[in-house]
Design goal:
Strand content: under 5%
Shape: globular
Distance between the termini: 23 Å
Strand order of the largest sheet: 1-2
Number of helices: 22
Largest sheet: 2 strands, antiparallel
Structural class: mainly alpha
């Protein structure tokens, strides 16, 4: 009874007919999921290619990938063929970028003229890979083990229990990250609570190295928690569970406000609007079956509490993100200054791209003299543009394939009014990541890749289960 209630509380439904429960595999698969989640949470918060933690994280991911591959069944592949093909396409594209081709053919590729001129001046003729920095592309290829292992571990879990397990782990990671962020704000700027050598010291970064990434991750967690609060239906749930979810939401939201991230402030607003929209449009009969008076009391207390905290911090000038947003700094932000250069780079390397992970090096070729300074641009801070620069036309095709899969999830959820909260959560989550990627590079962090794969897999799995249930009816 308790397990069935937990499944429904996590947006699931009773499973039967579409897939058989594989109970014998649950203990090992659950252990693998927890172990991988802990490893990625503690070691995968930096987007830098040279983060020392990757020495441990990538082997762990490959071990989890091997475990998931052994447990993978043909039935699971059929249900999740599209995401598996998209990951396979990324792997293939990176391998192609690493294959050496003759000098004549290589020099004819767009954006290779600088290196070709150097070769001609030196009188050398070498076979070269398409990637302008092969070591970076090879590192990106190894990095795909993390999202791939996340997907295969998801498929290895018992279908009747995996959504509760996955969403519980993701919320736990968000809470631990928020706790780290709180301790970082209370402690010195060089505290051991900062897990990475290159980090936004003095800011609330949690388990990440970048304050923006921490705040955007918090926004996704807020959407997940809000979705759970408004979508539980058909079963009585403990009031304590509701209190814990509301408290978790408030705690994560407060730390997002204090992160000092303007981007996080924007995505937090999107998250709040998403949860509000899901609550207002939820079908009759959904939501935790607690007394209306108690439910209204929780809602009023939550809204007033959040508003009071926000007003107090605003009055005390204690929301760094808001202070920065209202200052003149956004106008002077380097993200806007280099936009023209990014467009030039995308056109210069199109359609083959410069190679995954090469942006930092190839940017030097295009960097305007006015932007020369002691600091450097290691990422484009516009991941849409950087993806086109590095991946070219093949990357755009894969990106369109990913959007197509997300649209399939949306259409499957939209076919049933009872699934409206899940559809709104999907739209809000995609919007958060899309907006964040316009000004930063959250999906370059392994922890973000890991979480997004799990969230999309949960939504697709939920849509598949309920579609099968409706067919049987």
């Amino acid at each position: 009874m308790v397990k069935d209630r937990a499944v429904r509380a996590m947006g699931g439904s009773s499973i039967g007919g579409r897939r058989k429960s594989r109970k014998k595999r649950v203990p090992a698969a659950v252990f693998a999921a927890i172990f991988l989640a802990v490893a990625v949470a503690l070691l995968g918060g930096s987007a830098r290619y040279d983060a020392g933690q990757l020495i441990l994280l990538q082997p762990i991911a490959f071990l989890a990938l091997g475990f998931g591959a052994v447990k993978l069944s043909s039935e699971g592949v059929g249900d999740f063929k599209t995401p598996l093909m998209l990951l396979g396409g990324l792997v293939l594209l990176m391998i192609v970028q690493l294959v050496s081709i003759p000098q004549g053919l290589w020099s004819a590729m767009p954006g290779r003229d600088v290196v070709s001129d150097i070769d001609a001046a030196l009188g050398v003729e070498l076979w070269r890979p398409l990637s302008l920095v092969p070591s970076r592309t090879l590192n990106a290829l190894f990095g795909l083990a993390i999202p791939a292992s996340a997907l295969l571990i998801f498929l290895a879990l018992d279908p009747s229990r995996r959504r509760p397990i996955i969403l519980t782990l993701l919320i736990a990671i968000a809470l631990v990250s928020a706790a780290f962020a709180a301790l970082q704000l209370l402690g010195p700027a060089d505290s051991w609570m900062y897990l990475y050598r290159f980090s936004n010291f003095g800011h609330a970064v949690g388990l990440f190295a970048n304050a923006n990434h921490a705040a955007v991750f918090a926004s996704l967690a807020m959407i997940v928690i809000g979705y759970l609060l408004v979508s539980v239906g058909g079963e009585e749930i403990d009031k304590l569970q509701v209190i814990l979810l509301v408290a978790s939401f408030a705690f994560i939201f407060i730390l997002a406000l204090l992160s000092g991230s303007r981007l996080g402030l924007i995505t937090s607003v999107i998250a709040l609007l998403t949860v509000f929209a899901a609550f207002c449009t939820r079908p009759a009969g959904s939501g935790p079956r607690i007394s209306r008076r108690l439910g209204a009391g929780f809602t009023i207390a939550f809204v007033l509490g959040i508003a009071a905290i926000a007003l107090l911090f605003f009055a005390a000038d204690r929301i760094p993100a808001l202070a920065e947003l209202l200052s003149d700094r956004p106008i002077e932000d380097i993200r806007l200054r280099v936009l023209g250069t990014l467009v030039e780079m995308a056109g210069g390397y199109f359609p083959v791209g410069s190679g995954f992970g090469t942006f930092e090096n190839v940017y030097y070729i295009f960097e305007p003299d006015s932007e020369l300074r002691p600091s450097y641009l290691n990422m484009a801070h516009n991941d849409w543009a950087q993806f086109v620069i590095e991946a070219g036309l093949p990357g755009i095709i894969l990106l369109l394939g990913a959007f197509w899969w997300i649209m399939r999830i949306a259409m499957a959820l939209g076919s049933n009014p009872m699934h409206r909260p899940a559809l709104i959560a999907l739209a809000g989550g995609v919007l958060v990541v899309a907006v964040a990627s316009l000004f930063d590079y959250p999906l370059r962090a392994p922890l973000f890749q890991f979480a997004c794969v799990w969230l999309l897999a949960c939504l697709w799995d939920f849509a598949l289960d309920n579609s099968a249930s409706e067919t049987r009816e």
